[in-house]
Each structure stands twice: as structure tokens, then as C-alpha cells.
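re: ur question from yesterday

yeah so i grabbed the chain u mentioned. its 246 aa long if i counted rite. heres the sequnce exactly as i have it in my notes:
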Amino acid sequence: MHVIRMLPILVAATLAAPVLAQQEPGSGSWHIVFEPYFMAPNMDGSSGVGPLTARVSANPSDIFSNLNWGVMGQLEVNNGRFGLNFDGTYMNLESTSDRRFLDSIGGHQGAYTFSALMRIEKHAELYAGVRVNDLGVNLSATGPLGNPRSASGSKTWVDPIVGLRVTLPFSRTTDLTTLVDVGGFGISSDISVQVWPSIGFRLSDKTRIKLGYRAVYTKYESGEGLQRFSYDVLTFGPTAGVRFQF
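ran it thru and got these C-alpha cells back, copy pasting raw so excuse formatting
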């Protein structure tokens, strides 16, 4: 996948960023950060339940036209040296299909990341934790002889992750934050990769607008026959949020 091929370049750029930065990190007092955000996701890959496998290919228009509801956001506590972060996304989708034999596909997708951060350099933090993936897929199809078939399944699994977050200040009001993490390692997912650069614009001492672009690739498969469940999807797209610090 393109994201995996780009990972060494992004990591190298991220590691180099702190050398160019001059702004000091936090003062050491604890603060709380709440950041609701929005993502316009594209999805590309495949997902399967039992004997049925469906191609997953959707742009933001496709997703929002079939979105029942969704929510995204981050919550963090940090004192400049150590921190705890929660990031959560959830989408519930349902759509009809014009593909041959496949009548409809629906389900939900949730990802909940819990991580601990440690500052290793003035503008760089290592983080490690777990990402809980919660997926549900419902497929209905009509066979070649007109016989209806349906399959549904859900899976929840936990991926260990390790990553790096770097913030590069451009000025007193603008900065670039880049997150790169890798997980799964064959323990649960075969591989899970996230890359998320974003630019922050300060509106006040407590409020920033964040604009970025996020890509998450996950490859997971378990079970056989009727118990088979597979998910091999790249989700990517622009993000926009508001960061509140207390």
C-alpha cells in the first residue's frame, strides 16, 4: 500500500522536525485537551463474512449519503512530560448495491485508541498503547439461480501500537503536528498503520483550529469457512477539528 511505502520517508521527516523547531514545550502543569474533529473519509479495500467478500470502495459522498450517524474526537491529559490520550471514531453505515448478485452492504466501524505519551525531545513524544477495533458487516445477495443469501458478522480485536508525535512550530500562531504509528504485528491485525499530519492555527490561548489529512490501513483476518471474517481496508481523507485546552 502507498501508506506503507511512504512510512520511512514520513518517519525520517518527523524525526528531523524537532531539530528545526525553537519553541519550548509545556510548563509542566497538567492540562486537559478536548478535540472534536470531522473526517471526510475515502475507503478502499475489501471485507468478507463467511463465503461472501465485498469490494469496499467509497468516497466521502458515498459514505455520508449512507451514514446513519457517527462521532469522532480526542481527549488528552498532559503535563508536558507525560500524557494520556484517547482517540475515538465511530461510523454506522447502510447502503444498497448495484453490483451483480450483491444486494446490500451495511455495518459499523469503530476504532478506539488508548495511549500513554512520553516526551523524548523538546518537540517529540513517543506513545504506546492499544487500538480497539470494532467492526460489523451485513451482506445480502441473490445467487445465480435467484436464491437469496445473507451473511453477517462482527469482530472486536485489540492491536498494540507504538508511535511518534512531533509538533513543529512555524510561528506563535501556527504549527504542524504529525502522528505516525504502527500496530498489530501479527498479534491481532497482520498490520495496522496510521499517518496523520495536521496544521494548527491559534485563535486564542485556549483554542486552535486543526486541519489535516489522515490515513489508516488495517489488514485483519480470522476464522475459516462460515466463521471467516476479513477486513483489508485503507481509510483516508482530510480532517478538520477544534482543539480546546483547559
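noticed a couple things. The mean pLDDT is 84. also Residues 169 and 175 are 4 Å apart (CA to CA).
anyway ttyl
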